[in-house]
Design the sequence.
């Protein structure tokens, strides 16, 4: 052994070299394990929970578990239970366990259409805090894959119907082409009708202008006479208004005078009646005196007898 060591120069200082290499490798491995442990929460206290999933599509071991957008753990394993559902065993950091309660639930999430799937757990509201080993309820729906599948189920029949409709529209002998041809003919007729209406309107407008000129020419004198007549009527109305105003001023005085005359007549009426009665008595006395003279002897033969006065018939005298 001493002969080989003395003869081969490459074996000189071999032991320190091997020792240095092993030391460097050990340190590198320790650093890698430490970094991996802190990254994967290897040295962080965790608590295990369970989630019952209807299927494991897009969920696998290592899938992130999120809380309000922060990663708090990951899926450790997936197993089928006796009812055909998938039991997901998750490990979350123990410090986040008090934030979860009996009313918390998990659901699938995805950052975008091509992003990785994760499990989002809603924090508790009024429920009691969860303990390690508890089962978190799962709410299905809202996953991008489910939404795409639902959209496919609704869009594909619509696309098939659209393709059928397009085929019918493109068929020259189909009902749509006949309808379009009929619409085109109807549109042409409508355009011709509109042209005729435009011509009629133009003629009507020209006739209206001619009629205005004729009416202005023929009825202008009549309008002038009408204006003069209206002016005369206005003047007559003003005269009547002045007369009425004068009568309103004069009538009270005239009425007052007539009232005074009536009062005087009422005062004279008893005297006139007494005078009339006295005249009747005087006439009666004179008549008796005349009758007495006629009957006396000396005068009877001198005065003729009075002839009776006969009033003519139908006379008011």
Sequence:
């Amino acid at each position: 052994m001493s002969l080989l060591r003395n003869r081969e120069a490459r074996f000189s200082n071999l032991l320190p070299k091997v020792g240095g290499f092993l030391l460097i490798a050990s340190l590198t491995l320790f650093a890698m394990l430490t970094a991996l442990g802190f990254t994967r929460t290897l040295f962080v206290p965790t608590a295990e929970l369970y989630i019952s999933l209807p299927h494991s599509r897009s969920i696998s071991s290592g899938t992130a578990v999120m809380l309000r957008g922060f990663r708090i753990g990951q899926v450790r394993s997936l197993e089928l239970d006796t009812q055909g559902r998938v039991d997901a065993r998750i490990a979350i950091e123990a410090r986040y366990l008090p934030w979860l309660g009996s009313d918390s639930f998990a659901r699938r999430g995805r950052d975008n259409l091509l992003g990785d799937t994760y499990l989002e757990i809603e924090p508790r509201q009024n429920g009691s805090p969860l303990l390690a080993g508890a089962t978190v309820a799962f709410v299905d729906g809202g996953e991008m894959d489910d939404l795409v599948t639902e959209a496919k189920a609704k869009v594909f029949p619509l696309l098939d119907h659209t393709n059928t409709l397009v085929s019918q529209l493109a068929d020259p002998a189909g009902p749509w082409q006949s309808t379009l041809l009929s619409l085109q003919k109807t549109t042409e007729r409508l355009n011709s009708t509109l042209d005729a209406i435009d011509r009629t309107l133009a003629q009507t407008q020209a006739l209206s202008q001619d009629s205005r000129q004729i009416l202005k020419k023929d009825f202008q004198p009549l309008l002038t006479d009408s204006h003069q007549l209206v002016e005369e009527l206005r003047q007559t109305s003003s005269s009547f208004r002045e007369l009425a105003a004068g009568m309103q001023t004069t009538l009270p005085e005239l009425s007052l005078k007539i009232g005074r005359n009536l009062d005087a007549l009422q005062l004279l009426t008893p005297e006139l009646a007494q005078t009339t009665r006295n005249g009747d008595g005087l006439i009666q006395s004179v008549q008796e005196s005349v009758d007495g003279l006629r009957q006396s002897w000396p005068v009877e033969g001198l005065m003729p007898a009075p002839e009776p006065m006969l009033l003519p018939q139908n006379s008011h005298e």
Summary: The chain is about 60% helix and 15% strand. Residues 273 and 279 are 10 Å apart (CA to CA).
